[in-house]
Amino acid sequence: MNTQTLLVLFLMAICTVQAQKIDPEVESMAIKLESKVIEWRRDFHENPELSNREFETAKKIAKHLNSLGLEVTEKVGKTGVVAILKGDKEGKTVALRADIDALPVTERADVPFKSKVKTTFLDTEVGVSHACGHDTHTAILMGVAEILAKNKSKINGTVKFIFQPAEEGPPPGEEGGAKLMIKEGVLKNPDVDAIFGLHINSGTDVGKIRYKPGGTMAAVERFVINVKGKQTHGSAPWTGVDPILISAKIIDGLQTIISRESPLVNEAAVITVGKITSGVRFNIIPESAEMIGTVRTLDPKMRALIIRRMNEMVPAIAKAYGAEATINFQNNTSITYNDPDLVKQMLPTIQSIAGKENVLLSKATTGGEDFSYFQEVVPGFYFFLGGKSPSTKNAPSHHTPDFYIDESGLLLGVKVMSQLTLDYLNAQ
Question: Helix, strand, coil: what percent of the chain each, to 5?
Fold first, then answer.
């Protein structure tokens, strides 16, 4: 082996060591904070609050952030909390986001900190629980804030902590969530250069992280189609215009947009009609019908194509059968789009902390996430943190009464978010 080869191997070894290095102080502090993070999580879990009603949750968050000496602003986006940490040196600004709201789901999981909260949601008495893990996100980011606040000397730039309400959607007639926070300037003063977020996942083993560059979660549109026909007796359909039959033709036609017009080799896409309402009696062809459904897309061009074709097809099919039809869309989330360059830049940090073998490239999902609105404004990276005990075979899914998270997964979340922040800001 010649001298040049030895030199190359030596330099490769140095790079490998550097790539695997974790800030020892971050590691030590995260380990010491683990029990505190779990305690916070259990408190939030036992006392959940619905979207735009996270009053006590916000107070607890703000109290902790104030205790760290951060610049804290409350009531952002109704109940959100934002804190700013300025490092000892000038540089870029990175935002870290956690969602804080719970769901109208009655918890069945057998844990000592089980939620017993009940409230009224859409005129119905319901239980309230953190059936999607937002309590873990909040506790993790509080831990990250404590670690970074005590390491200001290592920060080249500014960190903005965003504790966001109403990720699950504001109540009817209200604004909320990421959209409202952006509208109120959460990504300004100082201007954010990049944003990171995570989501606990009940189906991924503790210790593992899943990610995908590009579209990782779907844009979600809700649509309403109204068909106007002509009412008549069910025994003489030729004397009327049947909106139920026409609705069936529209549903069938919409599926051809997916099966025959959408380039599914690029990304998945879905059109689903989830509700159809029409008629009052077995022998009456009604005057009208209403359909409500959802569109899920992962590619901006496909999204534009599908919505354009739905707008063209719905009235055209109705007209072909002598009826009229309208379609209206409501955007629930945009595409959760992980900036490929940002993912490439930060992936080594995640791999160094979790272990390369535990960082898994995943396929996209057709669920939606309003973190996507932040990513429309600034580059973002959103990944999934394992929350399933390896001994669990069939983990209950999110948004269900039996949803359960193994709290031993929170420590990795604290480590990764802390180190991502330092590495991003110090790479300038």
Answer: 40, 30, 30
